[in-house]
């Protein structure tokens, strides 16, 4: 995957005319430096701006940023979903991104309303189902999975997953805490097996007949289908025509104490440009935030869907409450 990404992004280099600088940018990232190197290499080649990556786990990076305070060398914070960017925002770690190009390109709901962070690509948390045992017409909403008709038929990842905390936050925003807790309790009551520790295990369990339906991020499924076109699991985008499908994504935030506004804007403008978006979205099997970018063919075959257009910053504010509600509901 990384070799293909590097080849595409080398081609991308010729499409940009960016001002050359001797500066460098430091990114605290949940993704390893070697995975990001093919993405940043063309940017450095074109601009002269070196991109240094310090990687670590989400909680570790947030703790480090808080401890370092105004002395942090970090300019940007890259993480896997809105839960962690919400925590960083509430901790006062970010400042506003000032690029007009970024603001014009990225849909409003995918950039936090204070412009302090944005998704650079995203996915939906979809209903996965065994197409040999379940008709897609039987499926509709996240809440419907709490119905007794799915008793002993549902598989979930643990509530400790930030992906499920984000989905729980979506439920709180659209249904209120009491109804959200009721839905979560219904999920717990309908479980066919103990919650797994990964979305891939949820998908495998559905395929193997251990359960009929489940929840997982959309980008996990393409690899299974590409390996076996007859793989039984298929996705359904939830809540179409009502609150629409929950989305979440990889985001980037501008660190409050960074003085490198110009260079930060350049890098983010590069990341959200259509050619780079196409390459990244293809490699990671996710959705680009730039409407002009293309989709990965397997992802495109999943079909179009209506996504929740609630601002991601609003959703992120309810992840802690969602985590408490899941515990209260007996969903572990």
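Q: What amino acid sequence fits the structure above?
A:
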């Amino acid at each position: 995957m990384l070799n293909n990404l590097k080849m595409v992004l080398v081609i991308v280099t010729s499409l940009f005319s960016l001002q050359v600088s001797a500066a460098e940018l430091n990114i605290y990232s949940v993704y390893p430096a070697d995975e990001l190197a093919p993405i940043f290499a063309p940017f450095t080649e074109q601009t002269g701006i070196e991109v240094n990556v310090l990687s670590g786990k989400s909680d570790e990076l947030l703790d480090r940023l808080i401890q370092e305070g105004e002395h942090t060398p970090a300019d940007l914070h890259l993480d896997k979903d809105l839960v962690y960017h919400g925590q960083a925002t509430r901790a006062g770690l970010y400042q506003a991104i000032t690029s007009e190009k970024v603001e014009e390109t990225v849909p409003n709901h995918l950039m936090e309303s204070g412009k302090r962070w944005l998704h650079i690509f995203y996915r939906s948390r979809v209903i996965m189902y065994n197409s040999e045992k379940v008709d897609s017409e039987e499926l509709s909403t996240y809440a419907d999975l709490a119905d007794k008709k799915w008793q002993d038929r549902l598989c979930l990842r643990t509530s400790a997953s930030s992906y499920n905390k984000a989905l729980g936050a979506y439920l709180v925003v659209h249904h209120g805490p009491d109804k959200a807790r009721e839905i979560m309790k219904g999920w717990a009551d309908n479980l066919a097996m103990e919650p797994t520790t990964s979305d891939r295990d949820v998908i495998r369990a559905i395929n193997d007949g251990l359960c009929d339906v489940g929840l997982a991020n959309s980008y996990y499924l393409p690899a299974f289908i590409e390996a076996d076109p007859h793989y039984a699991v298929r996705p359904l985008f939830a809540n179409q025509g009502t609150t629409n499908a929950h989305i979440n994504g990889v985001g980037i935030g501008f660190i409050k104490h960074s003085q490198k506004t110009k260079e930060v804007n350049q890098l983010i403008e590069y990341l959200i440009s259509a050619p780079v978006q196409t390459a990244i979205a293809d490699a990671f099997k996710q959705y680009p935030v730039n409407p002009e970018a293309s989709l990965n063919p397997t992802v495109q075959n999943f079909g179009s869907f209506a996504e929740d257009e609630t601002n991601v910053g609003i959703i992120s504010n309810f992840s802690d409450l969602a985590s408490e509600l899941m515990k209260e509901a007996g969903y572990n």
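Q: And what stands out in the fold?
A: Residues 33-47 form the longest helix (15 residues).
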